[in-house]
Design a protein that fits this description.
The chain has 241 residues and is an alpha/beta fold. It contains six helices and twelve strands. The strands form three sheets. A seven-stranded parallel sheet has the order 1-12-11-8-2-3-5, with helices on one face. Strand 9 and strand 10 form a beta hairpin. The protein is globular.
């Protein structure tokens, strides 16, 4: 793994930098193999990044889009990661519908939906690393509690290694979900992590610490990524303002 990080004065500047990094990595993949694959996350942080993606000079007809995780809600629901991406990025960019591989987490049986998405990943992502689909780019965020994707503190899904996609049970106010598992995240050729806001600083420190408890801070799974990892943060997330 190669590791680097960049800090920016504001969330908007960080999101813009994340978009430029996205463009560079996707262009590298396109030049090498003609097509590219990218998995995106949901939540409030990617919304800024999605809006920046629309202005990128990229041939979206050659880029296939996957999701890191999805909530068990209909694709038109305000809590849907897909719905957020559709409004901010998919519709304005004109990416072909055939290139959009959304998680069908609204299914009545999430275990079957997880198996279906795993099959789609295996069929659609040609590059493999140790038999695991190697996405060209995965863009992640980190929650205040230290989660990434839908790998939450104390949840057994964090330790699933025999599946590429897993259902996540509902807990408290949190919906059930689907998530990529650590083998897929760790096999990505490149990972960009965007972290914005002072509330993320304690979790970020735990992720970057030389030692720590994966069960307490699931985002430490990023430390196991075998490809390049670029952290894009704003000054507040870095504890500098």
């Amino acid at each position: 793994m190669s590791f680097r990080w960049h800090s920016y004065p504001s969330p908007r500047e960080a999101a813009s930098a994340c978009a430029r990094q996205t463009q560079m990595l996707l262009e590298q993949a396109l030049s090498g193999q003609g097509t590219a694959t990218m998995a995106v996350s949901g939540g409030s942080t990617p919304a800024l990044w999605f809006r920046e993606l629309v202005d990128l000079d990229l041939d979206w007809s050659r880029i296939h889009l996957f999701w890191v995780d999805e909530r068990a809600v209909p694709p038109t629901h305000e809590r849907s990661n897909y719905a957020g991406a559709k409004a901010a990025f998919l519709d304005p960019s004109g990416i072909p519908s055939s290139n959009i591989h959304r998680m069908r987490a609204e299914a009545s049986d999430l275990a079957i939906a997880a198996m279906d998405y795993e099959a789609e990943l295996r069929d659609s992502v040609r590059l493999k690393l140790g038999g695991v689909p190697a996405l060209d780019l995965v863009v992640l965020g980190i929650g205040d509690d230290g989660h990434t994707a839908s790998l939450f503190p104390g949840d057994a899904t964090l330790f699933v290694t025999d599946k590429l996609v897993a259902p996540v049970p509902a807990a408290g106010q949190r919906e059930a979900r689907l998530t990529l598992t650590s083998p897929v995240l760790e096999s990505a050729r490149a990972t960009v992590v965007i972290v914005l806001g002072a509330s993320k600083h304690p979790a970020l420190e735990r992720v970057w610490a030389a030692s720590g408890d994966l069960r307490e801070t699931p985002a430490r799974v990023i430390r196991g990524c075998r490809g390049s990892v670029t952290w894009v943060i704003d000054r507040a997330a870095g504890g500098m303002g």
